[in-house]
Specification:
The structure holds three protein chains of three kinds. By secondary structure, chain B is α/β, with parallel strands linked by helices. Chain B contains 22 helices and nine strands. Chain B has a domain of 382 residues: Alpha-Beta Barrel (TIM Barrel), CATH 3.20.20.240. A nine-stranded parallel sheet of chain B has the order 5-4-3-2-1-9-8-7-6. Chain C starts with 6 loop residues before the first strand and ends with a helix. The chains are: A alpha/beta, B alpha/beta, C alpha/beta. Chains in contact: A-B, A-C, B-C.
């Protein structure tokens, strides 16, 4: 199984080796990756729901994902999971331990799991996560769950990859949750209070209820270690996904996300040239002016034609449009708070 | 010497009472050269601070030991953990050990038994009889204790998740021998929390597991008053790589969780607490280990008195078993292990252990041979009969170094315990991976120091020798699995399956409710329901626990 | 020579819960630049094989302390073959008597590490296994 054609045929035949190999080729920037990526323009990929699971370390993301696998399998769905863990900035290595909580499904051929390392990428995902998710969708997985590294405020990549993002929080992680309020809490579609049997869970629910109401987000309470609230979480996700698909929101998000990913890649591709230009120009005492001059030089355009720094700075990375109608639809099938 | 009132009080009340009840082994104790050996050496000036912190043996806070005369009254129990292959083979080994002067049995079960699987379960492949004896039903247990009168020995069983089932089998064997349960003596390990933390033989999730444990506490307080209902274990936490401080902190934190659970289940602390036992590791840093045992004793006494308001002295006493540290044994130059074990045993005895298992020199290679087991036992006997350590209680007390280390371990362990409290207790701390990570980090630090030669392990990274002779390795007969499967098949044909099914159904009903599970388990065991059948009923009702994420 | 990180799966077949060695080797490999997928304890050979194939690892490492290696190590090799990963090299470690090593090698275990093996030797050996495997892709 060495040619792209063989591998693509293998993915379509749901051969686990082919799926694993395809993801590796993309991840490693192998020359064969392009052909594989081209095959991902497919109705199966368009139809699959991509569910992001994010949240701070220790909130119970892996356990929750493990429980969601069980839930979807009981419904007869074929499910994919991409689980991302951080690479060590020193050695470049990584310990990928998320599988431990999903091993109950290891021999189920309809559960496809891939552990990935960030490989230097900040933002909570790895560069090949998008391709990995789509390869799993091509292999017939729906939904595909993407589980991020333990995140803080800034790691919001998942919002740009997933159709729906669930932010998992837990009592006892006080500072982390405070830090996320300005970021992920605003961006996530579903707020999950896990460890719902913890004495401090009630307080976190009380804290999140107005946040969810103000922003029109679903709020679900779970005890992942005991499987409680999992069905409600999955039902909420399903209803939201259906509503988003019906309203065209999903298509808009995917379009937006693809564009954002393309922008990332454009910057990545430019990075060596930018670095060389800046290096040859020498660092000025104002790094912003240096950047502007280098880019103008690189693009062969006068620097006046570039946006001013005040225009470029501090723009939110992702414009988020509210999806009020879909949340109402979701609320129709399940309560926002889990008593 | 000015007599402090507390000393007078101790002499009059604690010591005299003990000597009246149980005289010492000899009228007087002397050193090898004939000098008199003081029973309890004391500081020249006894002040309030000494009394409060160190005190006198057999009295709160028990820093110097749980008995006023310690080994002058009675030696520690020499208890060698053993078991392998079939019940027949293990029975032979137990009778050999009893002949050799061992004073208590300690049953090692194989892994399928420890995880509640019958020997013919597919998951048991390759594991039957390997690290201990395979027990599938009461029939095996009857063979295991054949010709060993249960009213004459005390038996420790290393069994956790299915402890209730094996305890029921032990009680049932007693019944067949005509020994009432009230007379049975021994210990079940029954410590599930450290299985999640370090040892891995869990079955059910934490909450139903805690229910099984409190059910055992309640049932035993009525039916087996001389049985230790739990052995709260730091041993495996240390084996997994923890430091001495972590060993104490996590063990006592586990202990607090059991006490909390039992109180929440409606039990009176002074009814069950006297039957709580502990199990620690005897590792290589001799004086640190002595300090560890002393610190743990003092901490537990204070915790029981102040936090749980226990009133009985027996509730405040930390009684413990020690096993020498398996992780320090080397596969290189295995005779060196005899010396390591001797030092570690000294630490345990100087630290006031109630019972001791000494590892055999060849355990880094496989299960021990009979010869090496005998040497391990002899090591204890040499310490007991030749070293003179038993002449004086807590002989290292008052050493600036040992008292200082005792204080430091207490302080640091208390700090770690309060971090666990902040996380909501032991179970949330386990579920968040906090405790496991602490241990992993310590293990990594320890092993890295060996890899870089910052820590020398004799014969491994220094003083290596070319070894040409491979030592004899003990092997378990490969046919054990098939034999056990055949026995199970015939058992299932011979027993009254209608009654077995009814008993299992009754157990399922009880598991759904809140009734004590010991009676229905005992009923099922008496009818020769197998361990796997009983555990499968409980798996269905309680669910199973899977390993937590590693970092 | 590849510059990407090698991917290794460390698995614990059988029922023993002693994962100190497996976790140490996992972390040491991580610190040597490997991406290490850890399965956790008490895995069947079939579970380990399925995970190794899905994860597209360059090598599989097994750790076992219960003495069941003669049964379970070859069972992992067989399971890998059945799962379509028969080409993935397998190494193992644990309490393994010297006299068992030739048999394990005949069964297809590429390297066997016994207690006291310096971790740098393990890393060197696993690196070589991964390099050879990566060259085949």
């Amino acid at each position: 199984m060495r040619t792209p054609a063989d591998i693509i045929a293998g993915i379509l035949a749901r051969n686990p080796r082919a799926v694993g190999r395809a993801i590796s080729l993309v991840e490693n920037g192998d020359p064969r990756a392009g052909e594989i990526l081209a095959a991902l323009e497919d109705s199966r990929v368009a139809a699959a729901t991509i569910l992001g699971i994010t949240g701070p370390g220790g909130a119970g993301k892996s356990t929750l994902t493990g429980q969601l696998i069980g839930h979807y399998r009981a419904l007869g769905r074929r499910i994919g999971v991409v689980a991302v863990d951080p690479s060590s900035p020193i050695s470049g290595g990584a310990l990928l331990g998320d599988r431990v909580r999903m091993m109950a499904h290891a021999t189920d051929e309809n559960v496809v799991v891939r552990s990935m390392a960030t490989r230097g990428r900040i933002g909570g995902l790895c560069a090949a996560a998008g391709a990995a998710v789509r390869i799993m969708a091509l292999a017939g997985c729906d939904p595909v769950i993407i589980e991020t590294v333990g995140v803080g405020q800034a790691e919001i990549d998942v919002v740009r990859l997933a159709d729906l993002t669930a932010l998992v929080m837990a009592p006892g992680l006080g500072d982390d949750i405070q830090a996320m309020k300005a970021g992920l809490v605003e961006l996530a579609d579903i707020l999950v209070v896990n460890k719902g049997d913890h004495p401090a869970a009630e307080a976190l629910m009380l804290e999140m209820t107005p946040v969810a109401r103000e922003r029109g987000r679903a709020l679900v309470r779970t005890v992942a270690t005991e499987g409680k609230g999992i069905a409600e979480l999955a039902d909420t996700a399903t209803a939201l996904a259906a509503a988003q698909r019906a309203s065209g929101e999903q298509a808009r998000r995917r379009q937006r996300n693809r564009e954002a990913e393309a922008v990332d890649w454009a910057v990545e591709l430019l990075r060596p040239a930018i670095r060389a230009a800046i290096h040859s120009a020498g660092p000025g005492c104002d790094p912003r002016a240096t950047a502007r001059a280098a880019l103008a030089d690189l693009l062969g355009r006068p620097s006046e034609s570039l946006p001013t720094l005040s225009e470029a700075a501090f723009k939110p990375i992702i414009p988020i449009s509210p999806i009020v109608e879909s949340v109402e639809a979701a609320h129709g099938c399940c309560s926002a708070t889990h008593a | 010497m000015a007599t402090h009132p507390a000393l007078q009080d101790w002499q009059d009340k604690v010591l005299k009472k003990m000597l009246d009840k149980a005289p010492e082994m000899r009228p007087e104790f002397t050193t090898l050269s004939g000098l008199p050996a003081e029973r309890v050496a004391l500081p020249t000036v006894i002040d309030d601070a000494y009394v409060a912190k160190v005190g006198f043996p057999g009295q709160y806070p028990y820093t110097r030991g749980v008995q006023p005369t310690m080994y002058r009254g009675r030696l520690w129990t020499m208890r060698q953990y053993a078991g392998f292959s079939t019940a027949e083979e293990s029975n032979k080994r137990y009778r050999y050990l009893l002949d050799q002067g061992t004073t208590g049995l300690s049953v090692a079960f194989d892994l399928p038994t420890q995880i509640g699987y019958d020997s013919d379960d597919a998951i048991a492949r390759g594991e039957v009889g390997k690290v201990g004896v395979a027990i599938d039903s009461l029939a095996d247990m009857e063979v295991l204790f054949n010709n060993i009168p249960l009213d004459k020995v005390s038996t420790s069983m290393t069994i956790n998740a299915p402890a209730a089932v094996l305890l029921a089998m032990y009680v049932a064997v007693g019944e067949k021998q005509g020994v009432p349960s009230q007379k049975l003596e021994g210990t079940i390990q029954n410590d599930i929390l450290k299985e999640y933390i370090a040892r891995g033989t869990y079955i059910f999730p934490p909450r139903p597991s805690m229910r099984l444990i409190t059910d055992i506490f309640a049932w035993c307080s009525q039916n087996t008053p001389s049985f230790n209902t739990i052995s709260i274990s730091g041993y495996h936490i240390r084996e997994a790589g923890s430091t001495a401080v972590q060993e104490v902190a996590f063990t006592l934190a586990d202990a607090c969780a059991y006490v909390d659970a039992a109180i929440a289940a409606g039990l009176d602390v002074d009814v069950f607490a006297p039957r709580l036992a502990f199990f620690f590791n005897g590792s290589s840093d001799l004086l640190e280990e002595v300090a560890k045992f002393r610190a743990a004793r003092r901490m537990w006494a204070k915790i029981m008195k102040e936090r749980f308001k226990a009133k009985k002295p027996q509730s405040q006493m930390l009684r413990f078993h020690t096993q020498t540290a398996g992780y320090t044994l080397t596969a290189q130059q295995i005779d060196n292990n005899i010396v390591r074990v001797a030092m570690q045993s000294l630490a345990a005895v100087l630290g006031g252990t109630q019972s001791l298992h000494t590892n055999s020199k060849d355990e880094a290679l496989a299960l021990p041979t009979e010869d090496s087991v005998r040497t391990a036992l002899r090591t204890q006997q040499i310490i007991a009969y030749e070293s003179g350590i038993i002449n004086s209680v807590d002989p290292l007390a008052g050493s600036y170094y040992v008292e200082g280390l005792t204080d430091t371990i207490e302080r640091e362990a208390l700090a770690l315990m309060s971090r666990i409290d902040e996380l909501g207790g032991v179970i949330p701390a386990i579920e968040a991976g906090f405790i496991q990570r602490q241990i992993e980090d310590a293990a990594y630090t320890y092993q890295s120091a060996i890899e870089t030669n910052d820590r020398i392990i004799v014969g491994v990274n220094k003083f290596q020798a070319k070894e040409s002779i491979t030592p004899p390795v003990f092997r378990v007969d490969a046919s054990v699995g098939a034999n056990q499967a055949a026995k199970l098949k015939s058992l299932r044909e011979k027993r009254d399956n209608v009654k077995v099914d009814a008993a299992l159904a009754a157990l399922a009903t009880a598991a759904k409710g809140t009734a004590n599970l010991m009676p229905p388990i005992l009923d099922a065991v008496r009818l020769y329901a197998t361990l796997g059948e009983i555990c499968n009923v409980l798996r269905k009702e309680f669910g199973t626990y899977s390993d937590l994420k590693s970092r | 020579m590849t510059t990407r990180p090698f991917r290794v799966l460390i698995g614990k077949p059988g029922l023993d819960g002693h994962d100190r060695g497996a976790k140490f080797v996992s972390r040491a490999l991580r610190d040597a630049g490997f991406e290490v997928v850890y399965t956790g304890i008490r895995r069947t050979p079939e579970e380990i094989a399925a995970a190794a194939v899905q994860e597209d690892v360059d090598a599989v490492g097994l750790s076992l302390l219960s003495g069941a290696h003669n049964e379970l190590f070859p069972a992992v090799i067989a399971a890998l073959e059945k799962a379509g990963g028969g080409d993935i090299p397998v190494f193992g470690g644990g309490v393994i008597p010297a006299e068992d090593i030739p048999g394990l090698k005949r069964a297809g275990i590429r390297s066997v590490f016994t207690p006291g093996t310096p971790v740098k030797d393990i890393i060197a050996s696993v690196t070589a296994l991964c390099q050879a495997q990566a060259a085949k892709v």
